[in-house]
Design goal:
three-stranded antiparallel sheet, 9 strands, alpha+beta, 11 helices, 325 residues, single chain, four-stranded mixed sheet
Length: 325
């Protein structure tokens, strides 16, 4: 199998890259981290107009999905520009709702998610990402799926300043119950891991590009530091790790099996994390500062590494599937 994008998929990626480049995403990210969502919501609607969220919603509910390959392509670009907001959570929630046997919640909630009119978050633990601004807040309690009430208290900071965490109270409207919820949640987790892997790959690629540009300009001993062999080797290793992750991501998007997606996630997230460490080392002191745009990707790569499954949890998924075979 050849995991190569066709011309339409490449054009889709290029159009998203151009749109996000023009959107001044560093300013949007910093606004979001302060709790100012206005510019972020504007960008959210532009992403929705490009059809990104509709890729996770079936045509029955006014979407054009599920199209996991195109979804992965889109999330690489969203990760490249470190776009804030519950992006993964919205497509995961859409997948969960669309996978239920009971179509009532999907008919009610999915059209607005596909169009970008609504945002969603899904709490799999004590906290939910960006629940303070999400319109749809899903929680699981055993085999019960609830539409949760608004969060309690102010949001908390996380490793990534643009990822704000809120505690959702128990209860709320019961949307579905039974084995259908368990099966739908498992499917949604696979989608969440795929899009998280894609985001991480995009963040890693951006970190690499920024670092290559920096080492070409930064001079020591009368020469660009990028000309030093030790620097070249570190960047080459980062590049190899990212390029190794890319076909795993696209291959996983084709199969959408839990083990393939888990392998792609751990590979992409570890590659991005390695690239982040290299980028920070080669930028030196400036890389530690919040004023440097590098920090927006550094914190993103670190947070994505454990989002929707730690490396150990993803490896366990791969090993568990291997034993069954």
């Amino acid at each position: 199998m050849r995991f190569l994008l066709d011309s339409e998929q490449r054009a889709f990626a290029a159009s998203l890259d151009a749109m996000l480049t023009a959107a001044d995403t560093p300013r949007v990210i910093r606004d979001w981290s302060r709790g100012d969502h206005d510019s972020g919501r504007t960008l959210w609607h532009r992403v929705a107009d490009a059809g990104v969220f509709a890729l996770a919603v079936p045509e029955t509910y006014e979407g054009m999905g599920p199209r996991p390959v195109e979804l992965a392509v889109a999330f690489v670009e969203l990760g490249r520009h470190a776009v804030p907001g519950p992006l993964v959570e919205t497509v995961a929630a859409a997948t969960l709702l669309a996978s239920l046997d009971d179509t009532g919640p999907a008919k009610r909630l999915l059209p607005a998610l596909a169009s970008g009119e609504s945002t969603a978050t899904w709490a799999t633990g004590p906290y939910a990402l960006d629940a303070d601004m999400a319109d749809v807040r899903l929680t699981l309690s055993g085999a019960e799926l609830h539409l949760a009430p608004p969060p309690v208290g102010p949001p908390r900071a996380s490793l990534d300043p643009a990822r704000r965490l809120s505690h959702l109270p128990p209860g709320g409207e019961l949307l579905a119950v039974g084995p259908q919820v368990t099966a739908a949640a498992a499917h949604a987790l696979t989608t969440a891991r795929l899009t998280t892997a894609a985001q991480a790959l995009g963040a890693g690629l951006a970190l690499l590009d920024m670092t290559v540009a920096h080492v070409k300009q930064r001079t020591q001993f009368g020469a660009p530091i990028g000309s030093f062999q030790a620097v070249k080797h570190q960047l080459a290793d980062a590049k190899l790790a990212l390029e190794f992750a890319r076909p795993l991501l696209l291959g996983a998007a084709l199969t959408m099996t839990p083990s393939d997606v888990a392998a792609a996630k751990v590979t992409a997230c570890e590659a991005a994390y390695r690239t982040a460490r290299t980028a920070l080392q080669l930028h030196g002191a400036i890389g530690y500062t919040a004023e440097c745009d590098l920090s927006l990707r550094l914190t993103k790569a670190r947070a994505l590494r454990t989002a929707w499954g730690t490396p150990d949890e993803c490896r366990a998924t791969v090993l568990s599937d291997g034993r069954r075979r």
